[in-house]
Every structure is written in structure tokens, then in C-alpha cells.
Write the C-alpha cells for this entry.
Amino acid sequence: MQEIKKGLEGIVALDTRISFIDGMQGILRYRGIDIEQLAGMTYDAVSYLLVNGEIPNEQELAAYSARLKTERRINGEMTDIMRICNYGSEALDSLRTAISCTAQMDYENDNNSLEANKNKAIRLIAKLPTMIAVMYRCKNGEIPLQPDDDLSHGANFLYMLRGEEPSAIEAEAIEKDFILSAEHELNPSTFALRIAASTLADAYSAIIAGLCTLKGPLHGGARKGVMEMLDEVAVPENANDYVLYKLARKQKIMGFGHRVYRNYDPRSRIFKEMAKKVAKENGDTTYYEVAENLEHVMYREFLEVRGRPIYPNVDFYSAVIYKYLQIPPELATSVFAIGRVSGWTAHCFEQYTDNRVIRPRAHYV
Ligand code: ACO
């Protein structure tokens, strides 16, 4: 019998040109470009890079951004759907329905050509922020706002959600959040999406498979868990007791650990710096200090007890930023999806381009 790797740990399933991770060194690149450099670009440029495979020149980027802006708007039917489909506590449940309905309204739904699929990618990248903001405002009895074409992808989302333009630092923070969340090789949601795409299911179906997989607390759902934990811990002095209590009961601390990284996740480093900046601008640095103490205690406990440290993952300091941006926890996984949708579509196209159905075996016991 072949050895079974539980959780497929260490198994290399396919070739990809989309991203590269060195988990020992803490390196992440999208299409050959270091994450530190990508973090200084706009989300539009990074999403173009992921979807089209190369950095856009000035004209290409201008045309792409203009196209995204025209696609930001959602029609009256979709607004009604977002108004009605908000029973659940998680915005992701509404978003899942919204993407399903987008597929039904899209005349190109069954067209699996690369051109039609790139149109679908643009529609999803552009419309996800609007869908989430409309759903949230309707749920709270507020009037949904039209997108503002003068604002960047990130700044426009915060504007549509909160009803006021974000500060320059807030806009930078959300733009970075979308960029750093955009792509991460064969994470669970992307793998689920590639399996769906490998059956030649349409792109919307594949994206929904990815979206559903993102929801779990061991994956994208951890961001919401971190936000709740920050409130639970409340003050930096409580971090030590909180961690010891949880670890003694073998409970996971959300936002720590990673299957691939054995070193500091390079995205966390950038998120941490950004979290410090938004905290400073806010004036109340408590959430940031709570997070920093949690990080120190986790590092110490894992090093002392297991002989190797544990580091914050992508969901940890991003959640601190969400607290300062007043993004409610029930929106956290959906906001993650706003960024990730570019990477998902890139993987979907890559799967279609060199396809063989993904179908492993199980050992019968
Ligand atoms: N808190 C407490 N203990 C942890 C944590 C944590 N966050 N992460 C790992 N450990 C412990 C495990 O309990 C396990 O201990 P054991 O050997 O005594 O059983 C050991 O470290 C190895 O952890 P696994 O869960 O087996 O590692 P795996 O590679 O399977 O899982 C994962 C990685 C899911 C990220 C894990 O670290 C975890 O559950 N973290 C918390 C949830 C989280 O933050 N998820 C987001 C990940 S990033 C993303 O998906 C976007």
C-alpha cells in the first residue's frame, strides 16, 4: 500500500506559473515578483498581473482600471437579491448566492473560451466589493451607495461600505489587504477550485467551489476568529492567560500556524507594519498591542514546549486592520474573497489551459 499523507501534506499536485512560495525562507512571489514589491502597487495592477500573466504597461493598466470601474455597478435585480439574501450571520452566504445569480444573468456563462472567461473575471473582481457593501448597508437599513469612480478599488469599497471616504492610510491599508490576499498557490480554496475546473465546470461554478472552501475557520474563516479573539482578550495584559488557557485545552489560536511556512509569513510582516500605522492614526492602539502580545506569547510557548516557534499567518494582522477600518467580523471572510478572486480566476484559466481531471484514490479500510 502507498503511504497516505494526511491532509496531502508535502504532496506536489501540479505545475503552476502563478505563484511561488519558499516556506523555509519566507518568500512569496506572484508571477516572479516579490510580495514586498507587489504590496507597493495598486490592486488593479496586481489583479491584471494574475489574470493576464504579465505586468500591464501604462495604457493597458488605464484601460483595465476603466473597465473595472464600469463593471463595479450592480443592477436592480442584483441589489434586490442582496437586500433579500441576508438571513445568515455571515456575509459569505449572501456572496455565494450573489455569484450564483451573476452566473445566471451572464449571457456568457456557458461560453468557456478564454475571452469570455476573462470577461467573467473582470465582472467578479469589479462587482464583489459592491455586492458586499450593498448587502451590508441594506441589512442595516441604510441606502446602498453607487461606486465612486474617482476612488481606487480598495478606497471605493470602504466608501460604499461606510458611507464616507477613507483616509489615505485607510485606503492604503485596504488596497494592501486585497493585494496580499490575492493569491497563494494551492491553498485549500484554490485547490477546491482547480478540482472543479478540472471537470470543465464553468468558471463561476469553480469560483463558488473556492468561495465555499474559504469559509472554514482553518482557512479564510480564521480572520473572523481573530477579530472575535481581539475583543475577547480586550487588553494586552490578558494575552498571556488567554493563550495558556486555550493551549492547555488543546484549542487552536486563530491566525497562527501554516502548513507551508516554517518561517515568518512575508505577508504578515507587511500586514503588521500596516496595522501599526492604522492604529497610530486611530489614536487607540489597544488592538495592535493585544495582537503583538498574543504573537509574543505564542512564539514563546511554542518554542519552549515544542522546540520550534509558531508565527502569525495572513489572517492575524489583517484582522487587526479590519478592526481599525470598522469592517465587522461577519464580513471578514467575504472581504478576503474580494482580494482572492483574482488568484482564483488565474488558477481556473491555468487549469483549463492544461487540463486533466483531478481524481486521486482513497485506500479502502
Ligand atoms: N493554535 C494552537 N496550536 C496550533 C496552531 C494554532 N493556531 N496551529 C498549529 N497548532 C498545533 C496543532 O495543534 C498541532 O499540534 P499537535 O502536533 O500537538 O497535534 C501542530 O501545531 C501542527 O498543527 P496542524 O494543525 O497539524 O498543522 P496543519 O499544517 O495541519 O494546519 C493550520 C495548518 C490549519 C493553518 C493550523 O496551523 C491552524 O489550524 N491554525 C489556526 C487556524 C488559522 O489561522 N487558519 C488560517 C490559515 S491561513 C489561510 O488559510 C488563509
The chain is about 60% helix and 5% strand. The chain has two domains: 27-217+332-353, 222-324.
